[in-house]
Specification:
Helices cover 31% and strands 39% of the residues. The chain is of the alpha+beta class and 345 residues long. It has a domain of 226 residues. Helix 4 packs antiparallel against helix 5. The longest helix is centred in the N-terminal third of the chain and has 32 residues.
Amino acid sequence: MCKEWFISSSGFSLGEGIMRRTRLQQLILLSVTLMVLMASQLAAAFSSPNGFNKEQLIREKLKAKDAKTSKKYYEWKGELVSERLVNTFEGDGYIVKVYEVTFRMEKPKLEELIHNSKEYFGSLIKTYGDEGKAIVDRIIEDWKVWLDSIKSETYEVKAEVARISLKDEGTISFDVNLYKWWFGWQVSDPVNLVFYGPAGSAWDVDYDMRNWLTNKWGDAGLAWDLYTWVDKDHADGVDWVWKKQDYQLRHGDYYGYCYHIRIYDGGYDWDQFLEWCIAGVHYEVWDWLGLTHRVISWEQAEDFVRSDFADEWFVGGVGYVYLFNARPYQDIWNDGYATIIRLDY
């Protein structure tokens, strides 16, 4: 921040020596001011990731956003058949209402399920060879059996939906659970992160975690796809979609201890939340006996992400919302709170 220095004359007659000293003092003062300005600019530059200043980082991100290519995944529309309010929580500046709901959704096609799992299937085969191919074949056969059991083109599913409202205006709605397909859709993980703001989309969160955080995240590698319900753009309750994660990231040693996050884009809220997304993050360890990852903690992972975002220059605020999903997931307790983060850039 630039400070202006003002030097005024008192109106008295000054001797030549005094005037020289005054000029010298002015030069010294000017030099000190320039040094302070240069030091502050250098500090701002080096306090930002990659040694660049804030404006340059924003330009780089906008350039990347303009050049992004979206992967095509199938999503299935859901019609809200019924809902029942079961819990309400009022926090500092927000209200959460949780509903038990029933959706009527389109029956997926087998080729759509296979397409959505193409990356996961490819990683299985690449990692385990013929054994991985056998796992893929078994999953596809199970899908066929499940789809054959659904006799009509639509079927009904139940969910737990949270609606978060800021006390001024604006509402976002989503399922508080993430689901894995295992002989039908079954609850797997809790939602424990919510992002919103001018730069709160799933793409923004993925970019920030890869590039702007102190702890850089990278590709998740071999990992299950999880699905959830999101009220995208909440246009009169008709925009509910059943979708898989938009992005998956990891931080840490894949064959050791690591953090793993799945991010789901929520669309746009025209009132106050603006762009928004939800995420589920956990801390896990590789299990060599089961050849899979085993969840150790939901809370440790949430704390890790929250502390990484908390003091960053592009974050507008960090808080908590209570989603009423306090229960064990994969035999590990989740406390029911989610960190909510506003992203401004």
